[in-house]
Design a protein that fits this description.
AP_endonuc_F2_Zn_BS, about 40% helix, TIM Barrel, two-stranded antiparallel sheet, isomerase activity, alpha/beta
């Protein structure tokens, strides 16, 4: 049976109202959850000192931390200045993650643009190599290349898995809602989990979950409460019951910890408990 870590993408606001990232770690544990993603999506504004304090709290309360890098990253931009700034945002995210003991930094790496998929793949690989080297962290933090929702974005399952095989400090981050949207409303949880096992064995798997919106004849990357069932969460819970793997599920629903608790309830209904 899966060893599951579950928690919100950011600071709890609905069941409890935490005032800061530091408060949030304690709140997550008090809610009975055991993971949290620290959101740098609007920029890396946390000092190293605060990152260390957050890390200490996570150790004290036994909460598994991850980080989401800023959204303003495009490693395949036609403008060299934008690539440099994108890489620096990733470097800063890696630095803070290292100091707080977070194990992965999730990133939306690029848009294909004029490079196209193959040349974009090579450019992303080159820039991630630079970022990891420039961060100076040595080891201990993965760059998590996220599966993206839009077909003009770098981040298909094939691209993320291939990149992770070529760079040992990269790991794919499967965003189930994004994958559902990218595949136009189709998802096969078991197929992806089996592929993971074949490619990465018992490596810890980091994932995101939310429902997405259907608009103008297509699924779009706009987050919805998980009760919308696009994609449904219950089949994933059923698949996890059948598998022996370590997995983090970060709830990116607009309802954050409220929906994370609903996910926990569904998991427990299928006999899957959170890791202790």
């Amino acid at each position: 049976m899966a060893k599951v870590y579950l928690g919100p993408a950011g600071i709890p606001q609905y069941v409890v109202k935490a005032k800061s990232t530091l408060d949030a770690v304690k709140a997550v544990r008090e809610l009975g959850l055991n993971a949290m993603e620290v959101e740098f999506v609007q920029g890396v504004r946390m000092s190293r000192e605060l990152a260390k304090q957050v890390g200490k709290a996570a150790q004290d309360y036994d909460v598994k931390l991850s980080v989401h890098a800023p959204y303003f990253i495009n490693l395949c931009s036609e403008e060299a200045d934008k690539v440099e700034k994108s890489r620096q945002r990733l470097v800063d995210s890696l630095d803070r993650a290292y100091h707080m003991g977070a194990w992965v930094v999730v990133v939306h790496a690029a848009y294909y643009g004029k490079l196209g998929p193959q040349r974009c793949f090579e450019k992303v690989k080159e820039e991630l190599e630079k970022a990891y080297r420039e961060s100076g962290i040595g080891s201990g933090v993965y760059i998590g290349v996220e599966i993206t929702a839009r077909t003009n974005q770098f981040g298909s399952v094939e691209e993320a898995f291939k990149l992770a095989k070529e760079l040992h400090y990269v790991t794919p981050v499967v965003d189930w809602g994004h994958l559902y949207a990218r595949n136009n409303g189709v998802i096969n949880y078991g197929e992806v989990l089996d592929l993971w096992a074949r490619e990465f064995g018992d490596r810890h798997m980091h994932t995101h979950f939310t429902s997405v919106r259907y608009r103008n004849g297509k699924y779009v990357d706009e987050h919805e409460p998980i009760e919308r069932n696009m994609p449904p969460f219950e089949p994933l819970a059923e698949e996890l019951k059948r598998r022996d793997l370590a997995i983090t599920l970060i709830c990116e629903s607009p309802l954050l910890e409220k929906d994370a608790l609903l996910m926990k309830e569904i998991l427990e209904k299928h006999g899957v408990s959170l890791a202790t």
